[in-house]
Amino acid sequence: MLGRDRPVPLQLVPGNAPRAKVDTSYSWLAMYFLLNLVLTIYNKAILSTFHFSFPWTLTGIHTLCSGLGALTMARLGYFTPAQLGERENMVMLMFSFLYTLNIAISNVSLNEVSVAFHQVVRAMTPVFTIAISVAFLSKRYSGMTYLSLLPLLLGVYMATVGDYSYTAMGFFLTVLGAVLAATKTVVTNRIQVGRLQLHPLDLLLRMSPLAFVQTVIFSWMKGELDEVVIFCKTDMSYKLIMALLVNGIIAFFLNYVSFTANKKTSALTMTVAANVKQVLSIVVAVTVFNTTIGFLNGLGIVMTLLGGACYSYVDWREKNMRARPMTPAFPLPSPPGAPTKSDPEKEELLDVRIVS
What we know:
Residues 29-312 form the Sugar phosphate transporter domain. Pfam families: TPT (PF03151). The chain contains 14 helices and no strands. It has helices at residues 16-22, 25-50, 55-75, 86-110, 115-122, 125-137, 143-159, 168-193, 200-222, 224-234, 238-264, 267-288, 295-323, 344-350. Helix 6 (125-137) runs antiparallel to helix 12 (267-288), helix 7 (143-159) packs antiparallel against helix 13 and helix 12 (267-288) packs antiparallel against helix 13. The relative contact order is 0.16.
C-alpha cells in the first residue's frame, strides 16, 4: 500500500442503497446516543451488583478492548491502516495523552466540586468548542447557531439544578476539563477530515494502546492499582470477568461510533450531542433507577431536548443551503458558434416539405 493511500471506509451493509440509508450523520448520532445510554446503565449495574468502584481500571478496560477490537477489524480486512511518518505518530501520541488527561482532570475535579456544578460547567463545552474553532481554525458560525445554543445551555442548567458547591481549585479544574473536552473533540475531527484523514477504526487502533498505558500509570499513581489487586484476590469471579468483558466490547463500539459521528458531523455537533446525552442519562436514571427529580429539573430536560432539536434543525438547514448549487439571476450568454435551442413554434413553421 502506498503511503498516500487512504483506508477503505468500513462497509456496514452490502449494496449501495441500504448503506446510503444507514451511513448518514443522523444514523451515527442515533447510535451514539443509544450506545452511550447502554454503557451508562451497564456501568451502574456493574457498580451496584459487583461493587467494582475503580474508574481508572474501568477506563483501562475500555481502552484495551477498543484497541483489540480495532486490531481485530483490521485483521479481518474491514479497513487498512494508513502508513504514517514520525510526525504523524507524534500527533497520535499527543492525542492519546489529551484523551487520558481529559479523563484525569474530570475525575480529579469531581472530588473538589458538587456533581451539579460539574455538569453545568461541562455543559459549556459547546461554547469552548466554538471559541477554539474560531480562534485556531478560522471557522465562522451563523447567528442562528448561537441562538439555538441558548435554550440548550439553559436547559442543562435547569435539569441539573442542585447543590452548586465548589472550591477555587475545583472551579479551575472543572473549567480546564471542559476546555480539554472541547479540544479533544476538535482535534478528533481534524485528524479524521484534515490532512491525515484517518479511518475511525485506524484512529482507535493507534490511540487506544497508548491511552491504556497512560491510564495504568495514572491508576498506579493514585494507588487504585493496588486496590484492584486486593479486590481480584478476594472478590473476583467469572461473572464479573464476563461483565467487564461485555462492558469493554460496548465501549469499543461506542468509541468507533463516536469517532465516526464526529467525522460525519462536526466538533460542535458532537459537544451539543454530549449535552443532550447528559440530560437523557437523567431520564434513564429516573425510569430505570427510580431517581426522583423536581419540577424545574423536568422542565430543564424538556428545554434541553427542544434546544437540541432546534440546533439540529439549524445545522440541517444551513448544510442544505451550502449544498444547494448557485443559479445565476440572469441566463449566461452562449459562446460564439454554440448551437442555440430553437423555439418549437418556429421549428414547426419552418418544417416545410417540397413534394415533386
